[in-house]
TrEMBL record:
Residues 386-535 form the Glycosyl hydrolase family 32 C-terminal domain. This is Glycoside hydrolase family 32 protein. Residues 40-65, 547-566 are annotated as: Disordered. Gene3D superfamilies: Exo-inulinase, domain 1 (2.60.120.560), Glycosyl hydrolase domain, family 43 (2.115.10.20). Residues 70-372 form the Glycosyl hydrolase family 32 N-terminal domain. InterPro entries: ConA-like_dom_sf, Glyco_hydro_32, Glyco_hydro_32_C, Glyco_hydro_32_N, Glyco_hydro_beta-prop_sf, TAT_signal. Belongs to the glycosyl hydrolase 32 family. Keywords: Glycosidase, Hydrolase, Signal. One of its GO terms (molecular function) is sucrose alpha-glucosidase activity.
């Protein structure tokens, strides 16, 4: 949801007591290495070069914090992601964009495409703000109306989103007949007029196969409202899911998934952006599993779960792949979030663009963990296209004595994967990433409490940030079969940590000193055993910047009257 950035403040979350002195003087570790094994279609005519021929260092004329593998605009401001749609093998993705920042407010939908959700091309603004008298263009969702339920033609791309004018939020409809490159406003807007609510925004729309109708989840303050429609224009209120402990809810999502990939065992998932102050969390994406009966959502448990426990994963959208069969579409989805936090969104040390970045795209599954369904997240396989030759070690012992640093990254972005022996005698192990010039970000594991954590109080931006930025972010992560795994994606301005195959995730902005990219580790209270260590460089995935428009015609994917669908 677009907001006035200067008015937003997030809240702190509690940190583990064992981390209270995280930045105090600590003993530098020494490592004993065992011998290492020798391991190591769309409308646009151009495609990215193969990873093997790609550069692993960002171009010299890029600003210090421009990401190597994360999506950002060339300039100006970005925030909320909008769910991608697939047309002729090409993902069409939109995000909120403000070309008038910081002097002017109001967002519009900016358009980018990709065939692999790793390499991106941008195409400029797809839906302009302040053109139809109803205000700017805010968060919503796009669908492909393959059966012409709305009457704009089979295969029309239809976007329904919030417009806000003089503080009043309404839902409007826009139509694209050129494959999602440019949209026109519907003459009958708004399709949903405000009933007098202060917060009434961020419609998320899917096709309900079981009932042959469109289904909308709408953020209404401390409630998610549910609406249905036969044609995307006329909407009927069905029920609401209310909370009094998560602040103002935003950016809802509603979808169905199979548990452990079994299509005979499915649950509905309701997700939303929330404020976790009352639960010792920051703002982020919460979710519940439960049932949707066509009228109301009933949660399996009252307490929400968090899709990501880091400080910077908000306005999340998820989607499936319509090229897969029904069972595959139920088994996994993609997800992407806004890698930023309203508590400091306008204070980041970037000059050529503002608003942070998008997270890497993840694959999410609904897995039985400790007897309950849990959304697990992992980097998509396509990220491996960027991988270079890895430095691999096995049976690494990290001792509490002074000595040597780890093998050093030779790329601006990289992937660090380690397996920790849960029986290690240490209290904690801490990896320092983006180290140099007296600054670093810490990724660690607390063996005593079974908690993974990220701390950035010593990073290069910490001193200029609000106190909430410097708080330690934690996630419960008990060992599995005697092992704890950390899969860490490090880029020029971010660290994303996937623990135990994605049972816990911590995504955070993180800023190093210009050019600093050191990596080291320390073990506190005893020795840490690393069963394995793998450091993989990631090639640069530069965004192809151009304003080329697609040929006329749509060519939407065949199937049900929505893409993506449940």
């Amino acid at each position: 949801m677009n907001r006035n950035p200067t008015s937003m403040r997030a809240t702190r979350r509690a940190s583990v007591c064992a981390l209270a002195a995280l930045l105090a003087a600590a003993t530098v570790a020494v490592f004993v290495f065992a011998p290492a094994p020798a391991t190591l279609s769309g409308p646009e005519p151009s495609s990215p070069p193969p990873a093997k021929s790609s550069e692993f260092s960002r171009p010299a004329d890029w600003s210090p914090h421009r990401p190597a593998v994360h999506l950002t605009p060339a300039k100006h401001w970005m925030n909320d992601p909008q769910r991608p749609i697939l047309i002729d093998g090409v993902w069409h993705y939109y995000y909120l964009y403000n070309a008038d920042y910081p002097k002017g407010n109001g967002t519009e939908w900016y358009h980018a495409t990709s065939t692999d959700l790793v390499h991106w091309q941008d195409h400029g603004v797809a839906i302009d703000k302040y053109k139809n008298g109803l205000g700017d263009i805010e968060t919503g969702s796009a669908v492909i109306d393959t059966e012409n339920t709305a009457g704009f033609g089979a295969g029309a791309v239809i976007a329904v989103m919030t417009q806000q004018h003089e503080g009043v939020q309404r839902q409007s409809l826009f139509v694209s007949t050129d494959g999602g490159y440019r949209f026109k406003a519907y003459d009958g807007n708004p399709v949903m007029d405000n009933p007098g609510a202060e917060h009434w925004r961020d419609p998320k729309i899917i096709w309900d196969d079981a009932r042959d109708e469109w289904l909308m989840a709408l953020a209404e303050g401390d409630k998610i409202g549910f609406y249905t429609s036969p044609d995307l224009k006329r909407w009927t209120y069905r029920s609401g899911f209310e909370r009094d402990d998560l602040g103002i809810l935003e950016c809802p999502d509603l979808f169905r998934m199979s548990v452990d990939g079994d299509p005979a065992k499915t649950r509905w998932v309701l997700a939303a952006g929330g404020n976790g102050a009352s639960k010792g969390m920051t703002t982020g994406t919460v979710y519940w599993t439960g049932d949707w009966d066509g009228e109301r959502f009933t949660a399996d448990r009252d307490e929400p779960r968090w899709l990501d426990s880091g400080a910077d994963f908000y306005a999340t959208v998820t989607w499936d792949d319509p090229r897969q069969d029904d069972a595959e579409r139920l088994a996994s989805r993609y997800a992407i979030g806004w890698l930023n936090n309203w508590a400091y969104a306008t204070k980041l040390p970037t000059d050529d663009w503002h608003g942070g970045a998008d997270s890497i795209v993840r694959r999410i599954e609904l897995r039985s963990v400790d007897g309950e369904p849990l959304l697990v997240s992992q980097p998509i396989d396509a990220l491996d296209e960027l991988a270079g030759d890895a430095e691999v070690r096995s049976r690494v012992r990290v001792t509490a004595a002074s000595g040597t640093t780890l093998p050093q990254p030779k790329s601006d972005a990289y992937r660090l994967r380690v397996e920790l022996d849960a029986a290690s005698g240490a209290n904690e192990v801490r990896f320092r990433v983006k180290e140099g010039g007296g600054h670093f970000t810490t990724v660690g594991y607390d063996f005593v409490h079974g908690v993974a954590f990220v701390a950035r109080a010593a990073d290069a931006a910490a001193e200029r940030m609000p106190a909430v930025y410097r708080e330690v972010r934690t996630a419960p992560a008990p060992a599995r079969d005697g092992t704890v795994t950390l899969d860490v994606i490090v880029d020029a301005a971010s660290v994303e940590v996937f623990v135990n195959d994605g049972e816990a995730v911590l995504s955070n902005l993180a800023f190093g000193a210009p050019g600093a990219n050191g990596l080291s580790v320390e073990s506190l209270g005893g020795d840490t055993e690393l069963r394995s260590f793998r450091l993989t460089p990631l090639a640069i995935a530069p965004i192809e910047r151009h304003m080329k428009q697609a040929p006329q015609g749509n060519g939407g994917s065949p199937g049900k009257p929505v893409a993506p669908a449940d």
